[in-house]
């Protein structure tokens, strides 16, 4: 039977455990060097034994540990030519004092980061979620041998390393605050869109270059520019003689006596292009090439008509007067000039829309504020009675459904995210090869000590392990 889990996270006692718990991280943070001053040798050994046993196999009873302990340590002696001509670092053999525990299946699962603590790893094993070489193992003290492959059900790994799932009431309270903050943000954007636009750009500009959010914004600006380039090329290729003639006829036929103002919206608000388009339309009228009822025709229909004008059949030419032919030729020439001029106008227009990768600025879009919509406020007491109704009621831009409960059937935060404060504990061992994609790991060999390092992961240094070894090598006497 394991020890009872009593005061494992005590901040007063400050013991360091084999756990990813945030309180354990605080104890690790405030833990200083173990003080051996003004203590007798036995007191030093006892203190070292207390500290190391609180971390290494704290779930084992003392009698079980003393039965497992072996005074023989595993180390590697480098005898190759790489050591010639320089001093060899000391091999910290006594850091292997608790190395025999690393063979246990429950501790190997914790070292491979498949569980958040040794006790949770033990629970996974007892609940038949762990396999060694394809065989289900239900003994946490199972001893691994070099070459053994063990794996944990992926669902359990997600549970062990995932953030805590909030209750429905907690989630709805968070969503209520999120909705209130979002609505205030939308209101501020709609009241002062340009000011808010510049404020966002300035926020990213003031960030450090190493900040991931600034890198994301830079990538967004680069993708924005690439999208504009693609749109520009697509629009340039789409502007043919037929399309330009169709736009001229569409703009001119909108009123009885067209002026420059009717052509500007169709030619990028450029006065020079509008003037040429007006002249082109007048020539088309002179040549009697504008079809009857053109004001009710679509751009696609006018484009088909323009194609027949550009590629006139012999029969059509024979029915036209010399004046009409001359006017149509003039219209076609102006159309060619429009095509050339319009190409440079389009490119210049899109270049002006591009963002700057140096200043991280994007030209202001007047329609930007229209994309933002507020969210209807929610009533927590009403939605707490029906989670399905709550999931439909919450529809924020970054979150669909209740916070942390995208899939209520899962025992962890969904969509999945890692538990907080995981990074300080993310230390992969030398003697285990881990695949997080499949939640498999290979126990390569027993951990050994090498010159300058030991493969047994421990928060304590060599002096502490020396005294702990001295304690156990005499059977605790």
From TrEMBL:
InterPro entries: Ribosomal_uS4, Ribosomal_uS4_CS, S4_RNA-bd, S4_RNA-bd_sf. Transmembrane segments: none annotated. The keyword Iron does not apply. Coiled coil: none annotated. Residues 103-166 form the RNA-binding S4 domain. One of its GO terms (molecular function) is rRNA binding. Gene3D superfamilies: RNA-binding S4 domain. One of its GO terms (biological process) is ribosomal small subunit biogenesis. CDD domains: S4 (cd00165). It holds the Pfam family S4. PANTHER family: 30S 40S RIBOSOMAL PROTEIN, SMALL RIBOSOMAL SUBUNIT PROTEIN US4M. Belongs to the universal ribosomal protein uS4 family. This is Small ribosomal subunit protein uS4m. It comes from Lachancea dasiensis.
């Amino acid at each position: 039977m394991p020890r009872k889990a009593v005061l494992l996270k005590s901040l007063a006692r400050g013991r360091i455990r084999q756990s990813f718990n945030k309180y354990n991280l605080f104890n690790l943070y405030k833990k200083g060097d173990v003080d051996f001053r003004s203590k007798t040798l036995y007191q030093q050994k006892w203190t070292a034994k207390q500290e190391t046993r609180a971390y290494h196999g704290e779930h084992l009873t003392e009698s079980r540990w003393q039965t497992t302990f072996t005074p023989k340590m595993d180390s590697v002696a480098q005898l190759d030519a790489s050591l010639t001509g320089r001093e060899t670092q000391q091999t910290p053999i006594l850091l292997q004092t608790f190395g025999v525990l690393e063979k246990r299946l429950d501790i190997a699962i914790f070292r491979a980061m498949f569980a958040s603590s040794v006790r949770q790893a033990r629970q996974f094993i007892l609940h038949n979620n762990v396999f060694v070489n394809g065989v289900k193992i239900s003994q946490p003290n199972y001893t691994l041998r070099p070459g053994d492959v063990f794996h944990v059900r992926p669902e359990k790994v997600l549970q062990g390393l995932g953030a805590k799932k909030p209750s429905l009431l907690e989630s709805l309270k968070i969503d209520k605050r999120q909705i209130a903050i979002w609505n205030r943000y939308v209101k501020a954007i709609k009241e002062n869109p340009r000011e808010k636009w510049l404020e966002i750009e300035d926020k990213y500009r003031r960030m450090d270059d190493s900040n991931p959010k600034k890198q994301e914004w830079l990538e967004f600006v680069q993708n924005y520019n690439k999208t504009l380039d693609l749109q520009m090329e697509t629009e340039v290729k789409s502007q043919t003689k037929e399309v330009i003639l169709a736009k001229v006829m569409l703009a001119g036929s909108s009123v009885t006596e067209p002026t420059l103002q009717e052509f500007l919206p169709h030619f990028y608000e450029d006065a020079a292009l509008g003037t040429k388009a007006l002249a082109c339309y007048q020539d088309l009228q002179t040549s009697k090439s504008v079809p009857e009822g053109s004001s009710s025709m679509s751009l696609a229909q006018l484009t088909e008509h323009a194609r027949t004008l550009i590629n006139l059949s012999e029969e059509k030419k024979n029915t036209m007067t010399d004046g009409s032919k001359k006017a149509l030729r003039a219209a076609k020439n102006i159309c060619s000039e429009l095509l050339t001029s319009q190409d440079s106008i389009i490119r210049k227009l899109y270049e002006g829309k591009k963002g700057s990768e140096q200043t991280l600025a994007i030209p202001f879009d007047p329609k930007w504020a229209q994309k933002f919509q507020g969210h209807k406020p929610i009533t927590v007491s009403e939605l707490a009675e029906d989670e399905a109704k709550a999931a439909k009621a919450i529809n924020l831009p970054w979150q669909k459904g209740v916070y942390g409960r995208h899939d209520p059937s899962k025992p962890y935060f969904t969509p999945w995210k890692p538990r907080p404060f995981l990074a300080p504990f993310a230390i992969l061992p030398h003697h285990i090869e881990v695949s997080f994609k499949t939640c498999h790991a290979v126990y390569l060999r027993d951990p050994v000590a090498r010159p300058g390092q030991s493969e047994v992961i421990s928060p304590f240094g060599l002096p502490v392990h020396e005294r702990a070894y001295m304690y156990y090598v005499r059977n605790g006497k």
